[in-house]
Amino acid sequence: MSTGLLDPGAVRPTVLARANPVAKLAVSTLLAVVLLLSVDVVTAGTAVALELLALPLVGLGVRGLLRRSAVLLLAAVPVSVLTVLVGVDSGAVLLEAGPLSVSTGSLESGAAVGLRVVAIALPGVVLLATTDPTDLGDALAQVLRLSPRFVLAALAAFRVVDVLAEEWQQLGLARRARGLGGDGLLAGVRDVAGRVFVLLVIAVRRAAVLATAMEARGFGAGERRGADRTWARPSRLRASDVLVVAGGALLAATATAAGVAAGTWQLLLT
């Protein structure tokens, strides 16, 4: 059994796990848009809490969720710390060291930014973990009526995600075997930066080879010739999918209502 990011077979067949990929994509997009409208700790914290409460309905255990979202969750830490150190100060000043200062307001802003990153990332992780790439391609083409060229490119990119995750682990082992890296925060940052650069090069090369291979197999010929592409498996929205989207909308509305009730919600566009 695969242990990568894309392993729908390791997820229990719950209602949310079996939902149409378009429904899960709609929920992820809706939550992201709502959370991007305001940066406040109450809205983001409520969204994270509700998402964790809904975890049993997804069919993905806590251990599986942490394994798949470790990188995204760790990304919230430096963002929060940077916001705390260089964000706009308000309230009582707790620490001051030259140009850097920490206040109660910057701490709240840092917590809000970190929680917002987690709240936006979790639905995406669930989408990746519970969706078969082929099902996603079928849904994008048959439900959303997107261009076959775009759908096939998205399908190829979706499948590469798991490969890149394995490449990241192999790069870490290879660098450790060569004696690179080391202990300490600075050494860890250098190690991550080196792996990110190498992974970027690998991704670009893989994308070029994949595009050439797909073009050689005629994946882009249908639109030029005006031919209709057929799909082996039908993909349709069901009543349960509507309930999934409604549940996501309710979650987003509840988080926003909590922020408004606490007086912390503020539209960023104003």
How is this structure best described in words?
With 270 residues, this protein is mainly α. The protein folds into 2 domains: 1-132 and 237-270, no CATH class; 144-234, no CATH class. It has 11 helices and 2 strands; from the N terminus they run αααααββαααααα. It has a two-stranded antiparallel ribbon with strand order 1-2. α2 (21-36) runs parallel beside α11, α3 runs parallel beside α6 (104-130) and α8 packs antiparallel against α9. The longest helix is centred in the C-terminal third of the chain and has 32 residues, at 185-216.
Keyword list:
mainly alpha, two-stranded antiparallel ribbon, 3% strand, 270 residues
Number of strands: 2
Q: Total domains, how many? A: 2
**What would you call the structural class?**
mainly alpha
Strand order of the largest sheet: 1-2
What kind of oligomer do you see? single chain
Mean pLDDT: 80
Q: What's the tally of helices?
A: 11
Radius of gyration from the alpha-carbon trace, in angstroms: 21 Å
List low-confidence stretches. none
- How would the global form be characterised? globular
Describe the SSE topology:
Layout: H1 15-18, H2 21-36, H3 41-53, H4 55-58, H5 62-86, E1 93-97, E2 100-103, H6 104-130, H7 133-142, H8 148-177, H9 185-216, H10 221-225, H11 239-262
Antiparallel strand pairs: 1-2
Helix pairs in contact: 2-6, 2-11, 3-6, 3-11, 5-6, 7-8, 8-9
